[in-house]
Amino acid sequence: MDHAMQRYVDGDLAAFDELYASLAPRIYGYLLQLVRDRAHADDLLQVTFMKLHSARGAWARGAPVLPWALRIARNAAYDDFRSRNKARVVLTTTGVVPDRADGADDGEPAGPLVDALHESMAHLPQAYREALTLTKQLDLSMREAATVAGTTETAMKLRVHRAYKQLRDDLGHLRRPQT
Amino acid sequence: MRGQRSLPPLAVDPPADVTARIRANVERSLCPVRGRSLLARRVFGFGAMIATLGVIYFILPEAAHQSGHARDVFLTGVAFLAAGSLWSLGRTGSAGVSIGARAAFASAPPVVFLLIAVLSTTVFPQASGVARTGLGCFKNGVVIALVPMAILLFLWRRSDPFAPRLTGALVGGWAGLAGAVALAMACPSQSALHVLVAHGAAVAAGALAGALVGRRLLAP
Hints:
The complex is a heterodimer of chains A (179) and B (220).
Chain A: H1 2-9, H2 13-35, H3 38-54, H4 65-84, H5 112-123, H6 126-137, H7 142-149, H8 153-171
Chain B: H1 16-29, H2 38-59, H3 62-66, H4 69-88, H5 99-120, H6 134-155, H7 164-186, H8 192-217
Helix pairs in contact in B: 2-4, 2-6, 2-7, 4-5, 4-7, 5-7, 5-8, 6-7, 6-8, 7-8
């Protein structure tokens, strides 16, 4: 990905395609987790890539691309929140999550455990859910995740720990009985 | 912790029409971009501050040069600007340096420099002329700092999505220190309080201004 970014900065369109194929699904998933609305995430994805495109000359060669791009996406999302002056859409009164970022809507099989997991994640505080998303779903290191979220590595570890604890409490009733 | 993934991976393909629009926009405006490396930004930024100091140094009246005070302040300022600005600027998001550590380290040289300036007021001979008011020194320091600050902001524009306010504060703080050093070369006042307040205020004002514009100018 980093090599593709370098070639993209040098003006190679094929490198952009390669970079997009690698970055876009992860950024889009991350944005869906943040805004929980597909149309909104579509807009933000375009904003993110336009910002990334205009700032590509400022990217420090050799720096990891994914945290950089995720942070641009995060800034775009939060700027948008502020400009709209409204809170993130969380849940309806019926408890149905408007959009799911796991691809289950696209034909992936989803069992009751996965459904319960997503519902439970939707109830997590935003900071905890973001911590899980960055470290456990986007596979960033703790340090990279902390950089993206604008916090310290220790705080990120704490958030992940507390998110897991909350998930365990929520999903405890689904645990298989010990034999 | 990397690789210990235990939740479903998060990868959702964006809609095809969104992908097509993004690609079309990129294709329309894609061209090679030269870009500046981190090292180049640091060197150019440092050079801009030193050049500003150099200009002030050479236009000082002859009386200011005779005592050697201006030369001493100039060299001390160059050393502090080199040590601090070359190290601290542009390191946000890089491995191993937390934002807090960077802020702490970056704020140390201006503090130490001001401390030395305060202590040296009893050592350096007083230049000719009547001591200016603190407000005058502050205004001159801010005006001198504008030039390196503009250059530094230009060099770092859209480069830091991680902590643009902090980077802005650092850029402004270093530019303010360059202004404070330039002032210290010519300031006839020997009052420690004057140095701390008037010259220190130039550093603080630069840092504040940088923090205010950082989010808009330095984040992509």
